[in-house]
């Protein structure tokens, strides 16, 4: 077993313990880390290999930060929890609580773009931190005091409209099953009815992959080409949240076409637009009617002459015309009729009443489904 790291260290011992009752050996690694002010803080990697092969999840990420100092004294308040929009400023306050030092802050977008926040002193103990996000999705705001993250930093904030629904996003395609090295494969991310948002696709595996994302009618098609066999994990997030089934485990077979290394990550981020599939009807689906409007009959004084401020009536008989929906409209010389009442009397027989307010010539339209009944439209004098 071999252990390596990027840290300045003294590897004091690697010890193994064998349990006769179990067919495995346990190792204990002791590592002493010595840092000084010249050693940069940040992310480091520690690799553990067995027979020159990385064990699962190796290399591990290790974060080194300087001493807390007074950073733990600071607190954030009036942080915007909702309603933050892209290209519009927002702000929150930071209270020092007597700490001495310098405050700095930056905002990191879903695509990885960093932008500095504007910091203004309100009084001797309070700062105002102003920022302006440039895209929709989950952002991270890093707030540091004397180079050290304050409690809770980085802060996550959702930017954009709340109508995006990650639960409505689905992914499918050959690229989420078994794949082969050197062969381009793809999968579709269906964002129909999910609203506009930020689509982030990340592929972790034994090698980097060439990846691109293109817009299609149903959503977005992601294409990639694996170069090294092994297990790849595909994470698909919408507005910072995993979609159904994410992360997907994809097994790749074939020959090594590139150098096998540590766990590698490839990613792509896309600002999506709202999509509705043409093949999917939105709203309720009407039944398939079988009817014949020519067999509908109508009678009544209300189809010939009407009187002001009175109930004018006629009847419609569609008992022999099949099943459908009766539509009645009354339009006057100045505007539509104010009141039209349709009452079903049974067996597709209807009574229609309407009231008019102005004198003149009116048009009464009666339809059985999409078709006019015989005599429609009717001219009525008031």
UniProtKB/TrEMBL annotation:
SUPFAM superfamilies: E set domains (SSF81296). It comes from the Eukaryota. One of its GO terms (molecular function) is actin filament binding. Pfam families: Filamin (PF00630). InterPro entries: Filamin (IPR044801), Filamin/ABP280_repeat-like (IPR017868), Filamin/ABP280_rpt (IPR001298), Ig-like_fold (IPR013783), Ig_E-set (IPR014756). One of its GO terms (biological process) is actin cytoskeleton organization. Transmembrane segments: none annotated. Gene3D superfamilies: Immunoglobulins. The keyword S-adenosyl-L-methionine does not apply. It is found in: Cytoplasm, Cytoskeleton. Its main location: cytoplasm. PROSITE patterns: FILAMIN_REPEAT (PS50194). Keywords: Actin-binding, Cytoplasm, Cytoskeleton, Repeat. Filamin repeats lie at residues 42-64, 66-159, 161-252, 288-382. One of its GO terms (cellular component) is cytoskeleton. Belongs to the filamin family. PANTHER family: FILAMIN-A, JITTERBUG, ISOFORM N. This is Filamin-A. It comes from Cryptotermes secundus.
